[in-house]
Design brief:
The structure is a homodimer of 156-residue chains.
Chain A: H1 6-10, H2 19-24, E1 38-44, E2 50-56, H3 58-67, E3 71-74, E4 79-82, E5 91-98, E6 104-111, E7 127-128, E8 139-140, H4 149-154
Parallel strand pairs in A: 1-6
Antiparallel strand pairs in A: 1-2, 3-4, 5-6, 7-8
Chain lengths: 156, 156
Protein backbone atom coordinates (compact mmCIF):
# COMPACT_ATOMS: atom_id res chain seq x y z
CA UNK A 1 0.00 0.00 0.00
CA UNK A 2 1.42 3.36 -0.95
CA UNK A 3 0.64 6.10 1.49
CA UNK A 4 1.19 9.66 0.37
CA UNK A 5 2.38 12.03 3.03
CA UNK A 6 3.06 15.73 3.35
CA UNK A 7 6.71 14.92 2.76
CA UNK A 8 6.00 13.80 -0.77
CA UNK A 9 4.95 17.28 -1.72
CA UNK A 10 7.61 19.27 0.07
CA UNK A 11 10.87 17.37 0.07
CA UNK A 12 13.01 14.65 -1.32
CA UNK A 13 12.40 12.01 1.34
CA UNK A 14 11.11 8.68 0.08
CA UNK A 15 7.39 7.96 -0.10
CA UNK A 16 6.06 5.52 2.46
CA UNK A 17 6.23 1.87 1.47
CA UNK A 18 4.51 -1.20 2.92
CA UNK A 19 4.56 -1.81 6.68
CA UNK A 20 7.32 -4.36 6.12
CA UNK A 21 9.42 -1.87 4.18
CA UNK A 22 8.88 0.85 6.77
CA UNK A 23 9.70 -1.40 9.73
CA UNK A 24 12.41 -3.68 8.35
CA UNK A 25 13.81 -1.83 5.35
CA UNK A 26 16.83 0.38 4.91
CA UNK A 27 14.99 3.20 3.14
CA UNK A 28 14.43 6.29 5.26
CA UNK A 29 10.72 7.08 4.87
CA UNK A 30 9.87 9.56 7.63
CA UNK A 31 6.20 10.08 8.31
CA UNK A 32 5.18 13.69 8.85
CA UNK A 33 1.87 14.38 10.58
CA UNK A 34 -1.05 16.43 9.27
CA UNK A 35 0.89 19.60 10.12
CA UNK A 36 3.97 18.34 8.26
CA UNK A 37 5.91 17.65 11.47
CA UNK A 38 7.73 14.70 13.00
CA UNK A 39 8.38 14.31 16.75
CA UNK A 40 11.99 14.31 17.96
CA UNK A 41 13.28 13.02 21.28
CA UNK A 42 16.56 14.70 22.11
CA UNK A 43 18.94 13.10 24.60
CA UNK A 44 22.30 14.20 25.96
CA UNK A 45 25.05 12.05 24.41
CA UNK A 46 27.04 12.19 27.65
CA UNK A 47 24.43 11.63 30.37
CA UNK A 48 21.93 9.78 28.18
CA UNK A 49 19.04 11.73 29.71
CA UNK A 50 16.24 13.34 27.71
CA UNK A 51 16.82 17.06 27.23
CA UNK A 52 13.70 18.00 25.27
CA UNK A 53 11.02 16.98 22.82
CA UNK A 54 10.84 19.06 19.66
CA UNK A 55 9.46 18.85 16.13
CA UNK A 56 10.96 19.01 12.67
CA UNK A 57 9.39 19.79 9.35
CA UNK A 58 10.98 18.31 6.22
CA UNK A 59 13.24 21.34 5.80
CA UNK A 60 14.52 21.17 9.39
CA UNK A 61 15.18 17.45 8.94
CA UNK A 62 17.06 18.01 5.70
CA UNK A 63 19.19 20.75 7.25
CA UNK A 64 19.92 18.59 10.30
CA UNK A 65 21.03 15.66 8.15
CA UNK A 66 23.21 17.86 5.94
CA UNK A 67 24.82 19.95 8.66
CA UNK A 68 24.86 17.74 11.75
CA UNK A 69 23.41 20.68 13.70
CA UNK A 70 19.94 20.28 15.17
CA UNK A 71 17.28 22.30 13.33
CA UNK A 72 13.65 22.27 14.45
CA UNK A 73 10.34 23.82 13.54
CA UNK A 74 8.81 25.97 16.25
CA UNK A 75 5.08 25.32 16.50
CA UNK A 76 4.50 28.46 18.56
CA UNK A 77 6.56 30.78 16.36
CA UNK A 78 5.71 28.84 13.21
CA UNK A 79 9.22 29.01 11.88
CA UNK A 80 12.32 27.01 11.14
CA UNK A 81 14.85 27.34 13.90
CA UNK A 82 18.45 26.27 14.42
CA UNK A 83 18.78 25.28 18.06
CA UNK A 84 21.10 27.78 19.66
CA UNK A 85 20.71 30.57 17.13
CA UNK A 86 19.47 32.95 19.86
CA UNK A 87 20.97 31.37 22.97
CA UNK A 88 24.23 30.03 21.56
CA UNK A 89 23.24 26.67 23.04
CA UNK A 90 23.46 24.68 19.83
CA UNK A 91 23.21 20.91 19.55
CA UNK A 92 25.66 18.79 17.53
CA UNK A 93 23.96 15.57 16.53
CA UNK A 94 26.05 12.51 17.39
CA UNK A 95 23.49 10.01 16.16
CA UNK A 96 20.07 10.18 14.53
CA UNK A 97 17.76 7.20 14.95
CA UNK A 98 14.29 6.47 13.64
CA UNK A 99 11.66 4.31 15.26
CA UNK A 100 9.91 1.21 13.92
CA UNK A 101 7.10 2.99 12.08
CA UNK A 102 9.34 5.93 11.19
CA UNK A 103 7.12 8.59 12.76
CA UNK A 104 9.52 9.57 15.54
CA UNK A 105 13.21 10.46 15.64
CA UNK A 106 15.76 10.16 18.41
CA UNK A 107 18.69 12.59 18.38
CA UNK A 108 21.71 11.97 20.61
CA UNK A 109 23.34 15.38 20.89
CA UNK A 110 26.35 17.15 22.29
CA UNK A 111 24.64 20.05 24.01
CA UNK A 112 26.65 23.26 23.68
CA UNK A 113 26.52 25.65 26.63
CA UNK A 114 25.02 24.88 30.03
CA UNK A 115 21.54 23.74 29.08
CA UNK A 116 18.87 23.00 26.50
CA UNK A 117 15.74 24.47 28.11
CA UNK A 118 14.62 28.04 27.49
CA UNK A 119 13.76 28.34 31.21
CA UNK A 120 17.47 28.09 32.04
CA UNK A 121 17.63 24.42 32.99
CA UNK A 122 19.81 21.69 31.54
CA UNK A 123 16.75 19.63 30.55
CA UNK A 124 13.12 20.58 29.91
CA UNK A 125 12.05 17.66 32.12
CA UNK A 126 12.79 19.31 35.48
CA UNK A 127 9.58 18.34 37.27
CA UNK A 128 8.07 14.97 38.23
CA UNK A 129 4.51 13.98 39.05
CA UNK A 130 4.15 11.55 41.97
CA UNK A 131 2.21 8.42 41.05
CA UNK A 132 -0.60 6.68 42.90
CA UNK A 133 -2.76 9.64 43.79
CA UNK A 134 -4.93 11.91 41.69
CA UNK A 135 -4.37 15.65 41.90
CA UNK A 136 -0.83 15.50 43.32
CA UNK A 137 1.47 18.49 42.95
CA UNK A 138 4.54 18.44 40.73
CA UNK A 139 7.93 18.10 42.42
CA UNK A 140 11.03 19.85 41.13
CA UNK A 141 13.90 17.54 40.25
CA UNK A 142 16.12 20.35 38.96
CA UNK A 143 15.06 23.69 40.42
CA UNK A 144 18.28 25.66 40.00
CA UNK A 145 18.84 27.35 36.70
CA UNK A 146 22.17 26.68 34.99
CA UNK A 147 21.91 29.93 33.05
CA UNK A 148 19.92 33.15 33.22
CA UNK A 149 17.40 33.06 30.34
CA UNK A 150 16.90 36.84 30.58
CA UNK A 151 20.57 37.42 29.84
CA UNK A 152 20.93 34.71 27.22
CA UNK A 153 17.93 35.74 25.17
CA UNK A 154 17.92 39.50 25.72
CA UNK A 155 21.52 40.11 24.70
CA UNK A 156 20.92 38.91 21.16
CA UNK B 1 -4.29 33.98 29.80
CA UNK B 2 -6.57 31.01 30.29
CA UNK B 3 -6.30 28.45 27.55
CA UNK B 4 -9.04 25.83 27.34
CA UNK B 5 -7.88 22.43 26.22
CA UNK B 6 -9.49 19.12 25.37
CA UNK B 7 -8.59 18.01 28.86
CA UNK B 8 -11.03 20.48 30.38
CA UNK B 9 -13.92 18.68 28.79
CA UNK B 10 -12.85 15.11 29.38
CA UNK B 11 -11.01 14.81 32.64
CA UNK B 12 -10.09 16.24 35.96
CA UNK B 13 -6.70 17.68 35.06
CA UNK B 14 -6.23 21.37 35.78
CA UNK B 15 -6.92 24.01 33.13
CA UNK B 16 -3.89 25.71 31.67
CA UNK B 17 -2.68 28.76 33.55
CA UNK B 18 -0.27 31.51 32.52
CA UNK B 19 3.08 30.67 30.95
CA UNK B 20 4.72 31.33 34.31
CA UNK B 21 2.34 28.95 36.07
CA UNK B 22 2.81 26.25 33.43
CA UNK B 23 6.60 26.51 33.44
CA UNK B 24 7.42 27.27 37.07
CA UNK B 25 4.36 26.14 39.00
CA UNK B 26 3.56 22.96 40.88
CA UNK B 27 0.14 22.40 39.29
CA UNK B 28 0.05 19.60 36.73
CA UNK B 29 -1.64 21.15 33.68
CA UNK B 30 -0.98 18.76 30.80
CA UNK B 31 -1.64 20.11 27.33
CA UNK B 32 -3.41 17.70 25.02
CA UNK B 33 -3.23 18.37 21.29
CA UNK B 34 -6.15 18.84 18.88
CA UNK B 35 -6.69 15.05 18.92
CA UNK B 36 -6.72 15.00 22.73
CA UNK B 37 -3.28 13.36 22.95
CA UNK B 38 0.00 14.10 24.69
CA UNK B 39 3.38 12.75 23.51
CA UNK B 40 5.27 10.37 25.82
CA UNK B 41 8.96 9.52 25.68
CA UNK B 42 9.54 6.17 27.32
CA UNK B 43 13.02 5.25 28.57
CA UNK B 44 14.35 2.11 30.22
CA UNK B 45 14.97 2.80 33.92
CA UNK B 46 18.00 0.50 33.89
CA UNK B 47 19.82 1.40 30.66
CA UNK B 48 18.44 4.93 30.38
CA UNK B 49 17.86 4.47 26.65
CA UNK B 50 14.69 5.44 24.82
CA UNK B 51 12.43 2.45 24.22
CA UNK B 52 9.57 4.09 22.35
CA UNK B 53 7.48 7.18 21.74
CA UNK B 54 3.77 6.78 22.43
CA UNK B 55 0.71 8.90 23.10
CA UNK B 56 -1.77 9.18 25.93
CA UNK B 57 -5.25 10.58 26.03
CA UNK B 58 -6.56 11.93 29.34
CA UNK B 59 -7.96 8.54 30.30
CA UNK B 60 -4.68 6.74 29.63
CA UNK B 61 -2.85 9.37 31.67
CA UNK B 62 -5.29 9.05 34.56
CA UNK B 63 -4.97 5.25 34.57
CA UNK B 64 -1.18 5.46 34.42
CA UNK B 65 -1.03 7.85 37.37
CA UNK B 66 -3.45 5.76 39.43
CA UNK B 67 -1.98 2.33 38.67
CA UNK B 68 1.70 2.94 37.96
CA UNK B 69 1.30 0.79 34.85
CA UNK B 70 1.81 2.47 31.47
CA UNK B 71 -1.42 2.99 29.54
CA UNK B 72 -1.43 4.60 26.11
CA UNK B 73 -3.84 5.53 23.36
CA UNK B 74 -3.21 3.77 20.07
CA UNK B 75 -3.62 6.20 17.19
CA UNK B 76 -3.81 3.39 14.62
CA UNK B 77 -6.32 1.26 16.55
CA UNK B 78 -7.98 4.32 18.07
CA UNK B 79 -8.25 2.73 21.49
CA UNK B 80 -7.00 2.84 25.03
CA UNK B 81 -4.32 0.24 25.57
CA UNK B 82 -2.41 -1.07 28.57
CA UNK B 83 1.14 -1.72 27.41
CA UNK B 84 1.65 -5.47 27.62
CA UNK B 85 -1.99 -6.50 27.58
CA UNK B 86 -1.39 -8.58 24.43
CA UNK B 87 2.34 -9.27 24.65
CA UNK B 88 2.75 -9.55 28.41
CA UNK B 89 5.50 -6.93 28.07
CA UNK B 90 4.06 -4.43 30.51
CA UNK B 91 5.82 -1.29 31.75
CA UNK B 92 5.96 -0.30 35.42
CA UNK B 93 6.47 3.44 35.68
CA UNK B 94 9.35 4.34 37.98
CA UNK B 95 9.07 8.08 37.40
CA UNK B 96 6.80 10.35 35.39
CA UNK B 97 8.17 13.73 34.37
CA UNK B 98 6.63 16.63 32.48
CA UNK B 99 8.44 19.16 30.33
CA UNK B 100 8.60 22.94 30.65
CA UNK B 101 5.45 23.74 28.68
CA UNK B 102 3.70 20.58 29.89
CA UNK B 103 2.96 19.20 26.44
CA UNK B 104 5.27 16.18 26.66
CA UNK B 105 5.80 13.47 29.26
CA UNK B 106 8.84 11.35 30.05
CA UNK B 107 8.23 7.92 31.58
CA UNK B 108 11.11 5.99 33.12
CA UNK B 109 9.90 2.41 33.12
CA UNK B 110 10.84 -1.06 34.21
CA UNK B 111 10.21 -2.96 31.01
CA UNK B 112 8.72 -6.39 31.68
CA UNK B 113 9.75 -9.18 29.32
CA UNK B 114 12.51 -8.96 26.72
CA UNK B 115 11.49 -5.87 24.79
CA UNK B 116 9.15 -2.95 24.16
CA UNK B 117 8.85 -2.94 20.37
CA UNK B 118 6.13 -4.86 18.52
CA UNK B 119 8.75 -5.91 15.93
CA UNK B 120 10.49 -8.01 18.58
CA UNK B 121 13.26 -5.61 19.52
CA UNK B 122 14.13 -4.20 22.91
CA UNK B 123 13.68 -0.62 21.65
CA UNK B 124 11.74 0.83 18.73
CA UNK B 125 14.83 2.88 17.80
CA UNK B 126 16.82 0.05 16.20
CA UNK B 127 17.97 1.91 13.06
CA UNK B 128 20.17 4.96 12.57
CA UNK B 129 20.47 7.38 9.66
CA UNK B 130 24.03 8.43 8.79
CA UNK B 131 24.52 12.19 8.75
CA UNK B 132 26.21 14.41 6.20
CA UNK B 133 24.77 13.03 3.00
CA UNK B 134 21.27 13.19 1.53
CA UNK B 135 19.59 9.93 0.57
CA UNK B 136 21.70 7.64 2.77
CA UNK B 137 20.37 4.22 3.76
CA UNK B 138 19.41 3.36 7.31
CA UNK B 139 21.80 1.19 9.34
CA UNK B 140 20.61 -1.36 11.85
CA UNK B 141 21.87 -0.83 15.37
CA UNK B 142 19.88 -3.73 16.81
CA UNK B 143 18.99 -6.22 14.12
CA UNK B 144 18.40 -9.34 16.21
CA UNK B 145 14.96 -9.80 17.65
CA UNK B 146 14.80 -10.50 21.39
CA UNK B 147 11.41 -12.17 20.98
CA UNK B 148 9.29 -13.60 18.20
CA UNK B 149 6.41 -11.18 17.61
CA UNK B 150 4.43 -13.87 15.78
CA UNK B 151 4.43 -16.05 18.89
CA UNK B 152 3.90 -13.25 21.39
CA UNK B 153 0.93 -11.70 19.64
CA UNK B 154 -0.69 -14.75 18.03
CA UNK B 155 -0.94 -16.79 21.22
CA UNK B 156 -3.25 -14.27 22.85
Amino acid sequence: MLELSVSDQTNAFASRGSTGEVEEGLAFQPKFDADGLITCVVTDAKSGEPLMVAHMDAEALRKTIESGDAWYFSRSRKQLWRKGESSGHAQRVVELRVDCDQDALWLKVQQQGPGACHTGRRSCFYRALPLGKAGAALEFREEERVFDPGKVYDDK
